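PROTEIN DESIGN WORKSHEET
SECTION A - STRUCTURE
LENGTH: 323
TOKENS:
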């Protein structure tokens, strides 16, 4: 590609190398978006190689079409140059539905395998709830994490995904999973930004050899679970001004400097490019100190999964008090 193509640093995780900056595709409400394919293709042109989708985002077909088009255009020479993550939705969060769930994902993407398959949320929905959001609270049921994980392991053994992992898991749930798993989770994908720094979880994951991927590094503004608090943060604004960067770049750079991989969503051409420009400069120790003092506030609290008669009766219970 042209000279604007940026080589994104990678880290070795399990059997794969993960590009540390990835591209998110969730747009709420979850609908097939006209601009998704175009944005993904543009991102590939600029050098993004890591793409994140999920069964319930409805973005799998657009991502699949963009990948096919990128191959046709020669933007990438083979599918292996890409790192593709998708996630098992809660209505498939049952032992016997994991493999069919992945097969449906692969079919929508038009791919033979995923690089990473994640349990989206540590809770299940009755199978008849399908992929619709919002779902009914009566459909929320406890996840048999051990059984579902056996299904995930089966998917990896069959070669349908190179790695398996989880998303939105607390330290406590990871510990439980590690007790019985034959293949340990490679990744825990969680919310992380200067406003929700995840110090404890990151330390735990590092000890256990689990790679952390950050979602909503900009606070996912414009979604039902999102917040403006990252992009409106005064501390980040001051640092951005002093360095001649944007607030988004400061937030992304900070997340990157913590040694995790991160996913940022933009369907705007200028911002897709802006978000890539975080690799040739650093934050100073003073910047990092100021960021470490920012009051912490979680964006997505999982309120949709809290129900008096369900497995989690409070937000604290869902996150095992790590909230
Ligand atoms: P858009 O797609 O119009 O660029 P997150 O990655 O934390 O989920 O945040 C995604 C949200 O942040 C989207 O609303 C996206 O809008 C917006 N966004 C992405 N990149 C930037 C940026 N560089 N500056 C401002 N807003 C951004």
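SECTION B - SEQUENCE
RESIDUE ASSIGNMENT:
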């Amino acid at each position: 590609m042209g000279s604007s193509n940026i080589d994104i640093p990678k880290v070795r995780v399990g059997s794969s190398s993960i590009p540390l900056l990835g591209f998110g595709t969730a747009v709420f409400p979850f609908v097939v978006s006209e601009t998704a394919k175009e944005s993904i293709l543009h991102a590939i042109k600029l050098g993004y190689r890591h793409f994140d989708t999920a069964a319930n985002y409805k973005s799998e077909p657009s991502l699949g079409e963009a990948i096919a088009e990128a191959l046709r255009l020669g933007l990438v020479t083979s599918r292996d140059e890409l790192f593709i993550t998708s996630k098992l939705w809660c209505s498939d969060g049952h032992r016997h539905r994991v493999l069919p769930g992945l097969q449906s994902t692969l079919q929508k993407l038009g791919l033979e395998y995923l690089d990473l398959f994640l349990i989206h949320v540590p809770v299940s929905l009755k199978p008849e709830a399908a992929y619709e959001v919002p779902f009914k609270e009566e459909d929320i049921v406890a996840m048999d994490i051990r059984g579902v994980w056996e299904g995930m392991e089966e998917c990896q053994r069959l070669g349908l995904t190179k790695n398996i992992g989880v998303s939105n898991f607390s330290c406590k749930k990871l510990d439980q999973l590690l007790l019985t798993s034959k293949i340990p989770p490679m990744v825990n994908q969680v919310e992380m930004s200067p406003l929700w720094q995840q110090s404890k979880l990151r330390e735990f994951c590092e000890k256990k050899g689990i790679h952390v991927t950050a979602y909503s590094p900009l606070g996912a503004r414009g979604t039902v679970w999102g917040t403006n608090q990252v992009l409106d943060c005064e501390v980040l604004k001051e640092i951005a001004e002093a360095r001649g960067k944007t607030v988004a770049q400061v937030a992304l750079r900070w997340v990157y400097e913590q040694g995790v991989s991160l996913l940022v969503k933009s369907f705007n051409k200028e911002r897709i490019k802006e978000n890539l420009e975080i690799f040739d400069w650093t934050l100073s120790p003073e910047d990092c100190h100021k960021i470490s003092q920012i009051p912490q506030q979680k964006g997505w609290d999982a309120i949709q999964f809290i129900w008096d008669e369900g497995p989690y009766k409070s937000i604290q219970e869902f996150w095992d008090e790590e909230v």
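SECTION C - NOTES
The mean pLDDT is 94.
The longest helix spans residues 60-73.
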